[in-house]
Specification:
Blueprint (H helix, E strand, L loop, with lengths): L1 E6 L10 E5 L8 H9 L3 H7 L10 E5 L8 E6 L8 H17 L4 E5 L8 H16 L18 E6 L5 H26 L7 H13 L4 E5 L1 H7 L2 H7 L7 E7 L8 E6 L1 E5 L19 H16 L4 E11 L11 E3 L5 E3 L7 H12 L6 E6 L3 H7 L4 E5 L2 H14 L3 E3 L4 H5 L8 E2 L7 H10 L7 E5 L5 E2 L9 E2 L4 H9 L17
Parallel strand pairs: 1-6, 2-4, 2-5, 5-6, 9-11, 9-14, 10-11, 13-17, 14-18, 15-16
Antiparallel strand pairs: 3-4, 7-8, 8-11, 12-13, 15-18, 19-20
Length: 511
Amino acid sequence: MKIVTKFGAPEMESTEALVFGLFENVKNVPPELESCNQSTGGIISHLLQNRDFRGKLNETMMIPTYQKISPKRIVLVGLGKFEDFSFDKIRQAYGTASRLIQTKQFTSFSLLLCKWKDVSVEDAARSIIEGAILSLYHFTMYKTVKKEENTKIKSFSLLVQDKAILTSVKASVKNAQTVSEAVCFTRDIVNMSGSDATPSYLANKAKELARKSDIKCTILSKPDLIKIGMGGVLGVARGSTEPPKFVVLEHKASKQTAETVVIIGKGLTFDSGGLCLKPGKGMDLMKGDMAGGAAIFGAFMAISNLKPAVNVVGLIPCVENMPNDKALKPGDIIKCLSGKTVEVINTDAEGRLILADALSYAKRYKPDAVVDIATLTGSCVVALGTFASGMFGNNSELKKRVKEAGENCYERVWELPLWDEYHELIKSHIADIKNIGGKYGGSITAACFLNKFVEAFPWVHLDIAGTFMVEKDTPYARIGATGVGVRLLIQLIQNWKTIPDVGKKSKKQGK
């Protein structure tokens, strides 16, 4: 999609629709829109004074201009109450307006950037662009779309009325477009059929990404995994005819002294539950059990363009969990890459087995921090619902950074504990550890399991089982995959700072 950031007077902008956000119960027309208001006979001021448009969050009104000014229409969108302002409300409002325009089958439109009091115009511009791009996403890979029903927006512009901020706003727009398109890329992968987005498909996507950028890509296939002893990945893959793949992506920063952040994503391309078969209802959603891995792909798509000043390594173990005659059986013992043995109590607790090997593999890079992201447990959805991802970790500074990144991009996280009492629940009588911890606290015991494979590096685990998809349209996400994790990881990596040595080593929370 083409996005143009330019300086100009809004009444002179030749466009199908000019979008402008207003706060709730504003009675006076903002200076940025006054010229359009006067040229159209005061129509906007009349609407505000008569309270025909109140500015409630995501309220919209499309006003024809009858050729009195260059824009054919003005679209007002509500930002809600000023005291409740947030950048996410900007995303919501401009996303709502953009989708309204899309339904009218226009091919282009313009957004007017406003200077709101105490609000960074660069951050506002970023939020506007994110809201617009993310809202316009529509997954149509498998749909037969008639030509007259194709409502694809080809371009839009962001109009700036202060030349002094044009350069900085352009940089923000470019950044927002890069990240938002990476989110859409991730959504596509997660929304795909599990028979199409196989481990081999993801491996080929990784190679394709590397060919188009300076990202280094390494694919470990089954013989490689056997050689190095990735028992977790190999164990889960036993039940499927699809060969496992372990994807390694690497971005090298320009400075030799740059720190290294490893990001890990669960790449379970379809999860039937294995021999512990899932119920049929809802199993179709298990094509998205690789949403964590897809988030790593999206993050690297953005990283290849943004070139952050930190080394970034992406690890994605890609497998399919199926119940054939060679599949893992409850009671089997597997040996992971770390050398630890695992008693498999439930074959549907498989994501942690492949992540365990990825966490052990991360040690090779001597990381300064590791973040893994996975649709790991239904228990996390029970605990937090669909509005926050679960967060666990062993380093308070890294957890703080992840939480701040999540708040800034509105991919919010909430911390859950890793107390010693929970670790007791995954002790095995015949192996080093078992893969489930009983009836209660499933998201916590799953994180405790992963913690057993974390070496002496700062680590955070994000459980996105409740946030990786939405069941109904929201202002900037349609039914299906949300692409959660991409914006959070990019925010974290772009703002990376050295983690203090104090408390840097891995310790159980609560000791």
